[in-house]
Design a protein that fits this description.
alpha+beta, about 15% helix, three-stranded mixed β-sheet, six-stranded antiparallel β-sheet
């Protein structure tokens, strides 16, 4: 609302996730099998996301015609992916933006199983997922930085393990607060907050 009314031109918020839960796009029904799990709905698109304690969830909103950020949607997506990648690389986490790849056996019901060229991987494991919603006045991104190994928290859903992630902590020694501090430091440097 504040973006639309031009009271602000940008925001970035991030949260340390504390519970085992799932999120789903408001445009999709949550499958009955997941109803017993703590869950919520996102304004952005995409499939179901498994969240674990220590994951970092973020949202970023900007006016479309921002002073610093690219105006075109694909360029804005690339900017955010590159920005988050750079923040993690500054902390010695060996990640990269996945880019265009050949895809097979995608399931649009699960975020981790289908390709988005702006998402970030550690090895072959998706560790940053992005979704967006664009209006006439603004672009809102929502995403997750997977820190924890999903299988450790969703043991009763092992049949969905192909949609799980190993998380950053499986391969890197960095704490969630360090990532949040680095993101904030870089956003301040860019005068985006």
């Amino acid at each position: 609302k504040n973006l639309q009314d031009e009271k602000i031109n940008s925001f970035f918020r991030f949260y340390n996730w504390t519970t085992t839960s799932v999120t789903q796009s408001v445009n999709r029904e949550l499958v009955d099998e997941f109803i017993h799990i703590d869950h919520s709905y996102r304004v952005t698109g995409g499939g179901l996301v498994f969240h674990c304690p220590r994951d970092i969830v973020f949202s970023m909103g900007n006016v479309v015609k921002h002073d610093v950020l690219p105006h075109k949607l694909k360029e804005r997506c690339q900017w955010l992916a590159d920005f988050l990648t750079s923040c993690l690389q500054n902390l010695n986490v060996d990640v990269h933006v996945i880019g265009e790849i050949e895809t097979k056996n995608q399931n649009i019901n699960f975020c981790s199983s289908y390709h988005n060229p702006y998402e970030v991987v550690l090895g072959s494991d998706k560790v940053i997922g992005l979704a967006l919603k664009k209006t006439r006045h603004s672009i809102v991104f929502q995403g997750v930085i997977h820190m924890s190994k999903t299988a450790n928290y969703f043991k009763d859903l092992v049949k969905y393990e192909q949609y799980f992630t190993n998380g950053i902590l499986s391969n890197a020694k960095v704490e969630p607060f360090e990532i949040c501090d680095e993101i904030q430091k870089q956003l301040i440097h860019l005068k985006l907050i």
